[in-house]
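Loading example: each entry is read as two labelled lines plus one structure line.
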Amino acid sequence: SAVISQKPSRDICQRGTSLTIQCQVDSQVTMMFWYRQQPGQSLTLIATANQGSEATYESGFVIDKFPISRPNLTFSTLTVSNMSPEDSSIYLCSVGHGYGYTFGSGTRLTVV
Amino acid sequence: QKEVEQNSGPLSVPEGAIASLNCTYSDRGSQSFFWYRQYSGKSPELIMFIYSNGDKEDGRFTAQLNKASQYVSLLIRDSQPSDSATYLCAVTAGKLIFGQGTELSVKP
């Protein structure tokens, strides 16, 4: 299965600022997925990032708030824009392979 | 109705017992079914996947799938304290959707 490097692992940010999270995969993958895990909750899919096309966002998530880049088949970024305390969560990227989906180690974001 | 539902926890079992975790899903077009284990502060770790009706065994873990009933379960035999974690059921029909998770506690 693929190995994903995600960074930063954690950050504390001021409200109103933006944070960009990066994921690097050790192999080429068609789709990458971005999830949010709020405290004590399960994972919620934010969007699917395909190389060469606009990301597809799930209900409740919009591009202005969570812009995503996918410049090539091994890399993607998620930006959390104009942050508020409600954005404090763990953000994870994921890729699919023949036997399941692998996750990055996550970015623990705290907005103060 | 949620797309993927799991029985509410926490579930507590004694060491050596069988832990049974259950999950139902709403999309009949779902194709693949996964069980992830998540320790506190860690990212989810895939422990089982199943595509076809029936049982699939891997060591102490058995996944069971019944597509007619839209039901998938995970049995953990000879439960160990190290199995204490949150277990997430996930279903895919193009994208991976998670249930809310069941917290399992195995008491020594």
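The longest strand of chain A covers residues 89-97.
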